[in-house]
Target: Guanine-specific ribonuclease N1 and T1
Amino acid sequence: MRALTLLLAALPLLLLPACSSSGSQKAAKPRTPAATTPPPGSAPAWAKGMKTVTEDKLPPEARRTLELIAKGGPFPYDKDGTVFGNYENRLPKQTRGYYHEYTVPTPGARNRGARRVITGEHSERYYTGDHYQTFEAVVHP
Model:
């Protein structure tokens, strides 16, 4: 009698897998999207839908500034590499110190001019030609 009671108690546990929609098949592994590179000229996720520009469409001075950034300098202006505060909130919101700014020389300007490249901690790059009024995410061609 005791054996029959144990069998009846265990029966629902033995039948439960057979009642599920997957039966005795192995549970499917959750699919994770494969890391993909966005198509050339398309906006990467970090650009948050903003306008983009490819390096080759930037002014030559901006391309030279990007080359200096990639090499780690030397930079022609003391303010190059300083923290960009994003006070205008035109770039995606990040903690202070996340962004840094670099001067893009403006031919004929007596000062630093209005053009800048802003970099983010994760290699994001933005260009402004109008002193932080508008930005474009710099993407690879």
About this structure: The radius of gyration is 28 Å. The CA atoms of residues 88 and 130 lie 13 Å apart. Residues 2-19 form the longest helix (18 residues).
